[in-house]
């Protein structure tokens, strides 16, 4: 690879195509379990309150209003009979007594009086009909006369029209601020209770979610849940989760021990075998082939170890420019390989420098192996990156033949090999699987897609380092 092929910043940038759907999907808006439970409980309580009010209205309020109307009609009839059969002096005294003792005011009805009928709703209309039926068809029931609000009943005494004014509360419960205060208090207590119940339900699930996230990050000791809770179902879940975390911790320890054993037990005899080959094999060509086979076995061991690395990783600020330059340098120089880069200066991501360099090295090696032009034998690789919000989008593509679209999703599966044109007997089928796992360990996402202008494109979404 010539020096010109490794220029980190090109005046003609490699185009960064639209990221494939798996990396551009945004999570849909979701509601937490607490708010969903709270809303359901609140709706249930509101529905129950409305049903209670309707039941009270049908079974208590309306019958009581009609009964009070009947009593009021009887009172009017009695008052009218008393006034008819009393002389003038006794009539004045009776009117004063009714006003003082019963809260009934009787006044003459003038032709110029203005009034508004008592017919605002179904109950008021029923009351008006009940009073008219008891007192006569010429009875008027009004809710306001000459600007004075109240329950006004118009009747006649010996052909003379009169008004009887009484308190509207006689025919039903008192409406207004009292009902609003009680309803507001009930609503507040109901919503407070719903919030407490939702919090009580959500708390163990929140703890379980936190413990699961810690296990996912490889912290098995910090994920112990309380096994002595009072709720039997939650207790069984906590016990099962703790046992699972303990078993995963044991598996992780066994894997680390196995990897250490593989690294120690295989590399030592391979190094000794290579030394013996160099010293004992006389045929230079055979010696070269044997040394190449030993190098290939070493490379395969490296691939297995890279793939089986623990998932726990502490991210740190990494210069993307330096990592890409180091990866290009590490793959060596090839006069038939041309690499162009378009990465803005000072682009930094959160991750591990060694892991990220291994990612780019694997992708470049994969492109050099399978992205070669079959006619010219030249490999062209474009690397581009751009920042977007809190992420950095990276694209590395070759200009080869691409792959069958049906096989793209399987290329990141371990030990999977595509068609013959993009595989080799020397491959392990772990290169892209290692890349996928390494990017995921750094909190990013990885996807493959055929480029619209030919070749295979690898897309990465990495976490942008804070400035």
TrEMBL record:
What Pfam families does the database record attribute to this sequence? HAMP, HATPase_c, HisKA, RisS_PPD
List UniProt keywords, sorted A-Z: ATP-binding, Cell inner membrane, Cell membrane, Kinase, Membrane, Nucleotide-binding, Phosphoprotein, Transferase, Transmembrane, Transmembrane helix, Two-component regulatory system
Q: What is its EC number?
A: 2.7.13.3
- The HAMP domain covers which part of the protein? 199-253
This protein's major location comes to membrane
Q: Which domain of life is it from?
A: Bacteria
Q: Where is the Histidine kinase domain?
A: 261-466
Mind telling me which residue stretches traverse the membrane in this protein? 33-53, 179-201
Top-level EC class, please? transferase
Q: Does the keyword Transferase apply?
A: yes
Membrane-topology annotation of the record? Multi-pass membrane protein
Q: Which reaction does it catalyse?
A: ATP + protein L-histidine = ADP + protein N-phospho-L-histidine
What's an example of a GO molecular-function annotation for this chain?
Answer: protein histidine kinase activity
Its annotated compartments are: Cell inner membrane
Q: Which PANTHER family does this entry report, sorted A to Z? A: SENSOR HISTIDINE KINASE ENVZ (PTHR44936:SF5), SENSOR PROTEIN CREC (PTHR44936)
Write the protein's name. histidine kinase
